[in-house]
Amino acid sequence: MSSTIFYRFKSQRNTSRILFDGTGLTVFDLKREIIQENKLGDGTDFQLKIYNPDTEEEYDDDAFVIPRSTSVIVKRSPAIKSFSVHSRLKGNVGAAALGNATRYVTGRPRVLQKRQHTATTTANVSGTTEEERIASMFATQENQWEQTQEEMSAATPVFFKSQTNKNSAQENEGPPPPGYMCYRCGGRDHWIKNCPTNSDPNFEGKRIRRTTGIPKKFLKSIEIDPETMTPEEMAQRKIMITDEGKFVVQVEDKQSWEDYQRKRENRQIDGDETIWRKGHFKDLPDDLKCPLTGGLLRQPVKTSKCCNIDFSKEALENALVESDFVCPNCETRDILLDSLVPDQDKEKEVETFLKKQEELHGSSKDGNQPETKKMKLMDPTGTAGLNNNTSLPTSVNNGGTPVPPVPLPFGIPPFPMFPMPFMPPTATITNPHQADASPKK
């Protein structure tokens, strides 16, 4: 019959168990079984600790045998790493990692080094006072420090040189890679630390702008020679440089400009929405006025279940939704949107009112037009001065009142004739009264 040891992670609530044969299991074997069962990995990045749930005492001895039917608490914490000079030189990072759970995965128990105790004289503490014991403690520490200094003086010093400075120095040696540019002078044949202008205190950099934050679709490549251009010319042409070392200029965003123009046109089209606002029409009848908006009724609807008053459709729907379907006029509840009935007769009255307003508005505009413009509108063909002998109806008679147009006689085209090469062109009479005042032949 197999034995069982119950365990539970400190951050969990459920309890698991490990099955084994025997009366007990060592701490080393228990940790290895827990790591394998929970698939915790190779153990290089954490350390596993086991505690007694009653006394919260850690089982730190791997050889300690835990009896069967025992419950333990398991805690996983980050590994403690300590790098030494020898581990860096050898390149063995795993050997430098201390305090992890690797040995439980590989099956190698922990090997403890024997500490070399220095020969110290232990004074007989029996029968001594507290001051004598303190003095003896300080004397022991001084002896240990002197022995440590003697060992350090005989040890061979090991010097470690950082590899980062060496690599960075080697990277900037030799010719620069393709695409590199010195941002001080604009040259591409040297590193910026080797720029010949570093020793010139009067040198002013070209101040080449970079394209940070600008999308590539708004950049256009150009070919220039930075050695032959002054900083003022580059700033005037707004030349920038990319990460690849290419010179570019910024182009306009046509798409955004077109979108702006389109939105502007839409706003102008939406200007017709002002006819539904309050105060747009000064002579608006009360029966065509919306009780909610105070303006002209727009898509008039009625509340069939209560007061049966006309409202604008959109305004009434918004008011019902915001007030939990309560009529804004008579405060009747449960007025649903499906109960709204369109008022066709009222909509026709609204259309008739708008047509009258358009006619009045159009007539007021026509009344402000000059007399010459009215004549051109009434006689767009320009046939008033084709022939002096031809009596054509004019748009304005001697009294100044307009007369209805009369059909032209048969054979006369409705447009002015072009002069023939063998006949001189006739003078165009702009004033219709001149035709009456001219002498008849």
Features:
single chain; about 450 residues; alpha+beta; Ubiquitin-like (UB roll); Herpes Virus-1; 12 helices; flat; disordered C terminus; RBBP6; mRNA processing
Short account of what is shown:
This protein has 441 residues and is α+β, with helices and mostly antiparallel strands. The chain is built from twelve helices and 15 strands.
Per-chain topology:
Layout: E1 3-9, E2 16-20, E3 24-26, H1 27-38, E4 46-51, E5 65-67, E6 71-78, E7 80-81, H2 85-90, H3 93-96, E8 97-98, H4 102-106, H5 130-154, H6 163-171, E9 209-210, E10 219-221, H7 231-236, E11 239-241, E12 247-250, H8 254-269, E13 300-303, E14 310-312, H9 313-322, E15 340-342, H10 344-367, H11 371-378, H12 432-437
Parallel strand pairs: 1-6, 9-11
Antiparallel strand pairs: 1-2, 3-5, 4-6, 7-8, 10-12, 11-12, 13-14, 13-15
Pfam family, one: DWNN
InterPro entries: DWNN_domain (IPR014891), RBBP6 (IPR033489), Znf_CCHC (IPR001878), Znf_CCHC_sf (IPR036875), Znf_RING/FYVE/PHD (IPR013083)
Zinc finger (CCHC-type): 180-197
Structural summary, described in words:
This protein has helices spanning 27-38, 85-90, 93-96, 102-106, 130-154, 163-171, 231-236, 254-269, 313-322, 344-367, 371-378, 432-437; strands at 3-9, 16-20, 24-26, 46-51, 65-67, 71-78, 80-81, 97-98, 209-210, 219-221, 239-241, 247-250, 300-303, 310-312, 340-342. With 441 residues, the chain is α+β, with helices and mostly antiparallel strands. The strands form five sheets. The chain has a four-stranded mixed beta sheet, covered by helices on one side. A four-stranded mixed beta sheet has the order 9-11-12-10. A three-stranded antiparallel beta sheet has the order 14-13-15. The longest helix has 25 residues, at 130-154.
